[in-house]
Every structure is written in C-alpha cells, then in structure tokens.
Amino acid sequence: MNQTDEMNQINQIDQMNRELPLGLALRYSYSYEIGGGMITPDVLTEYLRRTMPDAAVTVSDRTGTMDHLKVVVISAAFAGKNLLDRHRLIYQALDIPLKDGRIHALELTAKTTEEA
C-alpha cells in the first residue's frame, strides 16, 4: 500500500468517525489498520498536521519496530500551553494509531517555534 492509499484510508476513517455515534466510531477506529502493523513517519506527521498545520515533526524509531517512537514536534499551537497540555494535544492528534496499536510507546518533545 502506498502513502496516498494510506492517506485516503485515514480520511475515510476520519469521515466515518464524524458521522457515526461515538460507540460505533470507536469500534471502527479500533478495527482499522492503515498500512498494516507499522506507522510511517509521513503518516504520523499527517495525523499531527491535522491538529497543528504548521507542525515541524521529527520521528525516530527507538527499537527498530516503528512502534516505540521518539517524536519532536515544533508548532506555534503550543504557545501559552504548559507541558501537560502540549502532550495532550499530541496524544489527541495521534488517537487513532495509539488505539489501533501502531504506536505502542511515545517519547515526546513539544516546543513552540520560539523555543526551537
């Protein structure tokens, strides 16, 4: 499956989640795996940019399995937010791949553009 197909699947799931009642939406979120068992840095970046369009994202694989990741996000969306709120924003953006198991562990760094 190529990256365009993965993005199309992400958009389809996102659309379904908007149209379905919460219980069904969650069930569909858990049942879909986009691109198989691993998430690519490009797909992860796309999830983050849906919430933070200006995000500069760096992804490092910590174990060689692409499910234990070190992610650095630089975005103006973090301005005025404390560390916990910055991490919450990232976790919300990555909700689907966290729930479907493509991401098992995250080490996060979240900076504003001024802090970078």
Which word captures the global form? globular
Sketch the major β-sheet.
Answer: 3 strands, mixed
What value does the average pLDDT take? 83
CATH level 4 superfamily: BolA-like
Strand arrangement in the largest pleated sheet: 1-2-3
The amount of helix comes to 40-55%
- Total separate domains: 1
What's the CATH class, please? Answer: Alpha Beta
**DSSP strand (E) fraction?**
15-25%
Q: In CATH terms, what is the architecture?
A: 2-Layer Sandwich
Based on secondary structure, the structural category is: alpha+beta
CATH topology: GMP Synthetase, Chain A, domain 3
So how many helices?
5
Topology as a string of helices (H) and strands (E) = HHHEEHHE
Radius of gyration, CA atoms, in whole angstroms = 14 Å
Query: Number of DSSP strands?
Result: 3
Low confidence ranges? 23-35
Task: Give your account of this protein's structure.
The chain has a three-stranded mixed beta sheet. It is built from five helices and three strands; from the N terminus they run αααββααβ. Helix 1 runs antiparallel to helix 2 (22-31) and helix 3 (41-51) packs across helix 4. Helices cover 47% and strands 17% of the residues. The protein has one domain: GMP Synthetase, Chain A, domain 3 (2-Layer Sandwich). The radius of gyration is 14 Å and the shape is globular. It is α+β, with helices and mostly antiparallel strands. Residues 23-35 have low confidence and may be disordered. The longest helix has 17 residues, at 3-19. The N and C termini lie far apart (35 Å).
